Amino acid sequence: MARLSKQARREQLLDVAAELVRGKGADALTLVTLAEVAGVSRPIVYDHFGTRSGLLLALYRELDERHRAALTDALRTAEPGTIADVMSTAYFACAIDMPEFTSLSAALKGDPELEAMQHELLAGYVTLMADALAPHSPLPKNVLRLRCRGVLGAAEAIAIELTHDRTTAAEATAALAALIRD
C-alpha cells in the first residue's frame, strides 16, 4: 500500500473524524479513537492535531471551508431577487450533507480558545453574507452584519431541528429565507 503524503493523510484523518462525529457525536471523537478507526498509529494522529481541541478545531475549520465555498458558489449565479433563497438553500444543503457540523459546533462551546476561533470563523461567514446582501439592503453595514449574525444563530437552531427530523428541508429553507428577507 502506498504511503500517503502528510496533507493526504491529514485529509483522510479529517474525513474519518467527520464520519465518527456523524455516527457517534462529537463526544466520541478522541485522538485515540481516531487513530483506531483510521487504522494508523497514535503518534500519527498526535503529530497532525496535537490535542483533542486541535482535532475539533481542524475539523470545524474544514467543514466551515466547505460550507463557505458552497455558499460562495451559489451566490455567484444568484439573481438579485433570489439572494435570501440561495443563501438559505445553500445553508441547509450543507446542514444535510454535513450533519456533524452542528454537533461539532456545540462541542466547541465552553472552551474559551475553541469558542474564540469559532467566532472568528463565524465572522468570516457573516462578512460573506453581509457583502452579498449589502447591495440589496438599505441598512447600514454594521446593522446588516449584526442581523446576519442573528440570522446565523437562527439558522443553527433550525439546522438542529432539521438534523433531528423535526422539520423538513423545505420548511427549514423557507423559514431561514424569510428571516434573511426581513
Name some characteristics of this structure:
182 residues; mainly alpha; Tetracycline Repressor, domain 2
Tell me what the structure shows.
This protein has 182 residues and is an all-alpha fold. It has a single domain, classed as Tetracycline Repressor, domain 2. The chain is built from 9 helices and no strands. It has helices at residues 6-24, 31-38, 42-49, 52-76, 83-97, 100-108, 112-133, 141-163, 169-181. α4 runs antiparallel to α5 (83-97). The longest helix is centred in the middle third of the chain and has 25 residues, at 52-76. The mean pLDDT is 91.
Q: What is the topology?
A:
Layout: H1 6-24, H2 31-38, H3 42-49, H4 52-76, H5 83-97, H6 100-108, H7 112-133, H8 141-163, H9 169-181
Helix pairs in contact: 1-2, 1-6, 2-3, 4-5, 4-6, 4-7, 5-8, 5-9, 7-8, 8-9
Please name the CATH topology: Tetracycline Repressor, domain 2
What distance separates the N and C termini? 55 Å
CATH superfamily: Tetracycline Repressor, domain 2
The count of strands amounts to: 0
Name of the CATH class: Mainly Alpha
Strand content: under 5%
Query: What general form does the structure show?
Result: elongated
How many DSSP helices?
A: 9
Encode the helix/strand succession as letters.
HHHHHHHHH
The number of distinct structural domains comes to 1
Helix content: over 70%
Secondary-structure-derived class: mainly alpha
Rounded mean pLDDT is 91
